[in-house]
Specification:
By secondary structure, the chain is an alpha+beta fold. The protein has one domain: RutC-like (60s Ribosomal Protein L30, Chain: A), CATH 3.30.1330. Helices cover about 25% and strands about 30% of the residues. It has two helices and six strands. Helix 1 runs parallel beside helix 2. The longest helix has 18 residues. It is globular and about 40 Å long. The two termini are about 15 Å apart.
Length: about 130
């Protein structure tokens, strides 16, 4: 039986205040990346106020974690996007489309009442390793 492997990189934010979750877990040929918000590694403030700035930072965090796991943005097979305001969808989607490439994964996008640190967007991902 294959065991799960914890993925950890300093190139992406650490779990909030020692919370019991990993940046990602590798198992069964996949990497499961925890939801990422627009925090820069080692900082506690968001990387900008606009949805575009925040989505760019989220993708930078996802990319760093995926690369540490031996994967890439191109290998993502499923994402879930959480938005604090669905009115941000068009601008988020523009950045998302540019960063995800020409073979987009399956995706769900939902509006939520609140995100950590007052973020406007959070994205989790599953990718092939």
């Amino acid at each position: 039986m294959e065991e799960k492997t914890v993925v950890r990189t300093d190139a992406a934010p650490a779990p909030f205040q020692g919370a019991p979750y990993s940046q990602a877990i590798k198992a069964g040929g996949f990497v499961f990346v925890s939801g990422q918000v627009a925090l820069k590694p080692g900082h506690t403030e968001l990387a900008g106020d606009s949805i575009e700035q925040q989505t760019e930072q989220v993708f930078a965090n996802l990319q760093a974690i995926l690369e540490e796991a031996g994967s890439s943005l191109d290998q993502i097979v499923k994402t879930t996007v959480f938005l604090a305001d669905f009115g941000d969808f068009p601008a988020m989607n523009e950045v998302y489309a540019r960063r995800i490439g020409d073979r987009p994964p399956a995706r769900a996008t939902v509006e939520v009442s609140k995100l950590p640190s007052g973020a406007r967007v959070e994205i989790e991902a599953v990718a092939l390793v």
